[in-house]
Each structure stands twice: as C-alpha cells, then as structure tokens.
Backbone:
C-alpha cells in the first residue's frame, strides 16, 4: 500500500482558502481528494453534490470525500483508512487561527499514520495587501506563514508592484524555507503544487538562500534576518556533530523555550553516520529522521534554520557548537 500524500492548507481568515480548494479540485479532475476541515460548513459544498453521508464523512458525486474533524484527527484518519473510501490525495484545511504545526505533527511523529499517509507540504494563503501588518500583530497568523512550505500571496490585482516587492522580500527573509507566488483568485500556476515533497527524506529541500547554479549567498547566510520581533537565523557548519549531544540539546532547548520557536529545519552531518540526519521541530519537540546517504564526492555540511521570536544568534550558535563531535583523546 502506497502512502497517500497529504497537503495542509492554512491561511488567514478571508485569504481565499475556499477559492483555492475549489480551484484545485477543478484543475485536477482525475484526482480523487479526501478533504478534512476543522468544522464542516467552512468550505462551501453544493448540497446537490452530496450523494452519501456517514456521520462526519460526506461522499460527493465528483468522487471526492469531505470530512469534518469535530474531535480527534487520528480517529478520523483511521476511519478513512479502514473504510471503503477511495482517494488519491488528502487535503486538511485548517481554520484561520489554527497552528499548522500541530496538524503536521500527527504525520511526522506517529508511525502508524506514516504507513498510510505521507506529509507532502503546507500551503499558506495570505492576503498580499495586509500580510505584513497581520503577521506583525497576530502571532497565530505569523506561525502559519513561517511554517509554510509554499506561500500563495492572493488578491494581488489591487496592490502596487512596490508593495508586492516589499512583501516578497520580507517574507523570503524570515521564512527562507518557503517558495511563493503572487495570484489573483488563488489560481496557482505551480504545476507541482500537490507534489512539493517538502518532507522528502531522500531529497530534503533546504534552500538557505543558495542559488541552484552556484553557492552564492542570496539572502545572507550567517546574517540575522528579522521583521518586528520575528527572527530567522541560518547556520552552516563544516564540523561533524555528536548525535547524543545534539539530541539532548534540541530536546532540552525546545522543552524549555519551545514557545519562542516557530520552526526549525535542518540537514545535519553526524560523525560516524553515512546518511544525513534531518531535523524538524513539531509542537515544541524535535523530530529526527534519516535522510539520503552522503556521496563520496560532496562536502558534508550541516545547514540549520531557526525561525521564531527574538531569537538571539550568539546564544544559538554557542549552544550548537557545544554539540560538535570531539574525539575521545582530546
């Protein structure tokens, strides 16, 4: 059984999530979607499409399924797996004030769920005109933007180019992990919108501002990027790491100060291990997974991105360097 890809759809209230979802369904007529929403009724479904209901699961005449959580997400996922429902892709639409990392954590930390589902990425819909003001004043909205793997700036027709440029530059600095595009009516032009592979273990995407054709620094690795109290800190290390020290550092740090970190993502070079170690932070805890093997002809570098509130670079760097591998005779 192949794991079903999962897309988390988040975004500000009124940003166009419903419009985008309907656009996806129309653009992919041969894909049978299972759609989970926090509260049934937020997504407008034509009552004429509903052909069968089973408690909180609605089967539609176009072959898609729409579900309401109204309780435990795990139980609903189990029901989708054990039922006779046929679907190719799962979309989870969160409320306008939800933290998407809590939803993502279900798919990154539970082995049983990982056998049936594979998290592909988080898409965030935001109003291009108001995004900078909103994330500066609303923490939950900031979390959505900063956790996103792909950002759709919507409703751009009435926004001048100078503002759009400022928005793109600011967001790319504080969330260097995400790709983005400008749209109207949420009509994304990205062909692989349902195949972001943001959590692919073999080819983890960690941009860190590096161009595809060169290692030239685009947004400034090693430089603090900030917007109001939101800070992005990126690090690159050539030294290898001690796995036990590293696990201890991240576990303790997030247990004590997890509320200050919106997202951590990285590829780590661990001494004595031939494969990359991938780290993600989910719900205030580190999640480590094994990635692709290091090639003999490549430099084994560690790349880490921390995104959060008022993150101090010197404190982070000092803590990370304490996890460097040191031979026993030193």
Residues:
């Amino acid at each position: 059984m192949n794991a079903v890809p999962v897309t988390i759809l988040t975004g500000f209230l009124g940003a166009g999530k419903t419009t985008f979802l309907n656009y996806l369904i129309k653009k992919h007529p041969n894909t049978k979607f299972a759609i989970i929403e926090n509260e049934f009724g937020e997504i407008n479904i034509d009552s004429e499409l509903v052909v069968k209901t089973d408690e909180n699961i609605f089967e539609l005449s176009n072959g898609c399924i729409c579900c309401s959580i109204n309780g435990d997400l795990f139980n609903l996922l189990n029901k989708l797996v054990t039922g006779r429902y046929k679907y190719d892709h799962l979309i989870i639409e969160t409320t306008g004030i939800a933290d998407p990392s809590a939803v993502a954590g279900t798919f990154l930390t539970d082995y049983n769920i990982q056998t049936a589902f594979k998290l592909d990425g988080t898409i965030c819909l935001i109003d291009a005109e108001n995004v900078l003001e909103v994330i500066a004043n609303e923490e939950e909205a900031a979390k959505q933007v900063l956790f996103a793997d792909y950002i759709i700036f919507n409703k751009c027709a009435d926004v001048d180019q100078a503002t759009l440029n400022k928005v793109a530059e600011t967001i790319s600095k504080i969330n260097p992990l995400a790709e983005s595009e400008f749209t109207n009516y949420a009509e994304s032009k990205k062909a692989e919108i349902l195949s972001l592979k943001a959590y692919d273990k073999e080819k983890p995407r960690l941009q860190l501002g590096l161009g595809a054709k060169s290692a030239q620094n685009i947004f400034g690795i090693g430089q603090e990027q900030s917007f109001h109290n939101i800070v992005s800190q990126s690090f690159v290390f050539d030294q290898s790491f001690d796995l036990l020290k590293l696990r201890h550092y991240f576990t303790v740090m997030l247990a004590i100060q997890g509320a200050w970190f919106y997202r951590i993502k990285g590829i780590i070079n661990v001494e004595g291990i031939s494969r990359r170690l991938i780290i993600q932070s989910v719900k205030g805890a580190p999640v480590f997974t094994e990635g692709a093997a290091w090639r003999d002809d490549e430099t084994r570098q560690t790349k880490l991105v921390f995104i959060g509130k008022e993150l101090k670079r010197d404190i982070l760097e000092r803590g990370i360097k304490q996890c460097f591998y040191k031979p026993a005779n030193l």
Q: What stands out?
A: The chain has two domains: 4-182, 225-321. The two ends are 49 Å apart (CA to CA). Residues 80 and 243 are 37 Å apart (CA to CA).
